[in-house]
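Design review, sub-item: ligand-bound model
Attendees: FS, YL, KQ
YL presented the inputs for the SN-glycerol-1-phosphate complex:
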Amino acid sequence: MTHIYQDILNSISKKKKLLAVLIDPDKMKPEGLSGFMLKVNKSVVTHIFVGGSTVEENVTEKLVSEIKNLTNLSVILFPGDVSQIAKSADALLFLSLISGRNPDYLIGKQVEAVSKLRKTNLEVISTGYVLIENGKETAVQIVTATRPMSRDNIQAIIDTAIASELLGMKLVYLEAGSGALHPINEKIISAVKKDLNIPLIVGGGIRNKEQLDKAYQAGADLVVIGTAFEEDASFFNELV
Ligand code: 1GP
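KQ shared the predicted structure:
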């Protein structure tokens, strides 16, 4: 069993900011993986997240084991569905979509996952997943049939994040959605961070160093970037 959560806490206590690259099994071409991973290994990326909203059965397991052969970084599942549980990964974000009111994504899928998790050694990290509107409809919203939270109602976002901490969750993930028009704004990040005592992940729509730095300055402990790396791998060099 890994100690990824403890390592995240240790990094935060040393004021080290963390960066995850998100690899979507539905989008990553097998022939492009080794070149992509070379760039990841040379970059400032600290974690690899694997997951997507619509991924075919069995694709994730194969991809994760190939990734593990190509890097020493921790691979953390960020699953859109139970079928994306892969035993060769190191850890799993056990997500509950607490911004929505769809029981399937609050607790149904989690119950379904347990029999699969029993057959793995994955470190399971419970995570309150908060989807916030970003200017366009996102895949998460469509697949989960939930509405994102309004970015204007910051108090409701804070209360949702704190509720997940009070429920005993270990991380909060503020999500604008993959390819979001507007990343989560600094006002929201800093307001949530001020009241929260567990690590804060921020992702969705971050496409340049300035946006990344703003997220860190506002209080994100770990930032997740997918699309910007997928579309232009030279983005890795920008982040030195
Ligand atoms: C999506 O937060 C992640 O779940 C990353 O989003 O692809 O927009 O970087 P991007």
